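Good morning,

Both structures are done.
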Amino acid sequence: MSMLPFDDRDGVIWYDGELIEWRDAKLHVLSHALHYGSSVFEGQRAYGGEIFKLREHSQRLLDSGKALGFNNPYSVEEIDQAAIDVVKANGLVDAYIRPVAWRGSEMMGVATKGSKVHLAVAAWEWPSYFDEDSIMKGLRLEIATWRRPSPETEPVHAKAAGLYMIASLCKDAATANGYDDALMLDYRGQVAECTGANIFFIKDGVIHTPTPDCFLDGITRRTAIDLAKKRGIEVIERAIMPEELSSFEQAFITGTAVEVTPLSEIGSFKFEVGEICKTMVKDYTNLVNGR
């Protein structure tokens, strides 16, 4: 990934209905979203110039905004087109796309009345989230200390910026300890997800994955489930306790950024990068590349 700072790049960003110079895409320090977390976003990938499952991502952005109590001023069709336009305008073929909607600086305070909802879409070149050697060997995860909250305390099914604060804390702690990422439990002590990816386990040829009742049911997660079922592989969604990890043979994670990536360790638990993991990686790669 490029090490250029994200506020100082060439290119254009779609901002409130028009393409503007990248460096001009700014917001005020008193924006409501900065102080109170009233922001939602998406992560998309383009392969060969085509954005994978674009409509699903645009619809989820709208749904996430509604969960935070605001209506995006743009339709799903307009958000789709904004993403397409910004990829094309930046001359990108394989890219990462980031739509984000937020409450602006029209007012300041916990209450949101009077604030305006803004929307921007940026796109840039972004290779695989992890290097190829790490993917082939399987990632190493630490078991995080922070937990995913109860649905009664946060809008857990929205892709909301504020929900990623604990994810950042977990990710930073894990990398500081020499791991690639962290596995988060939920408020009940059940296995939930990684800091920005869903998780799957394999035992006796069957895939097991946590029920997404307090975390995001990822678009890539659902895609992986569909791919497995097309292969005739049984997929069971259920509560998974951390003490079960020793019984699983393989494991992998899914997400737009991480795609499908096998695991080799979670804390003291070891996994092989076996045939089902390799098949899932291959099938997903073929799908997004139109093969």
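Second structure follows.
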Amino acid sequence: MSAVPTPPDAITNMAEVLERLGNIPLCRVRFRPFPGTATEDDLLRVAAQEDRLCELVDGILVEKGMGFRESLLVAALAALLRAFVVPRNLGLVSGPDGTMRLFAGRIRIPDVAFISWARLPGGRVPTEAIPDLVSDLAVEVLSASNTPGEMARKRREYFTAGVCLVWEVDPEARTVAVYTAPDEPVVLTQDQTLDGGDVLPGFALPLREFFAELDRQGPAAS
């Protein structure tokens, strides 16, 4: 049985809901179950029956925002991180449906995450659908529906839970904002190299090569 989240303050109108969630588009806020009443069981049911990924925030199911271009970068980065992590046996790399319980009533799904063995109970792959996990690295690839307020809240939650490093990838600007605390990032352009810092020492990714995934083309038509 999934734990029931701590009930949020009384919700009187949708403006309060949207402000609580960082003024995301209303289309991402699930109305069934009614905002403020959703549980982890509801999250799993929606995923199973409707094939929709949701995060759980203050008893509200929030659909994850993603687009095709963003998914290309997510897949590329997950592959690059895994190619670094696995040969060194450093831990696990999860993808955009890797649901994690940061703390009671707060379920987040980073687009890509690295979890060291030290953070995995018994040094093994979790068997639960929603494990209690806090990643060392959380990566968010921004989509059109992500707002500054939403991302600021996510960062606060990640670092409060114990995440050490957050990367925010902006496909439009072709930048990566590197956070070691919720605010004041180091913003890297595509002319620079992203490194793993203290979390993944030795990992290096030239960003021009990374963002070139968005420019790939097939053979010219004959």
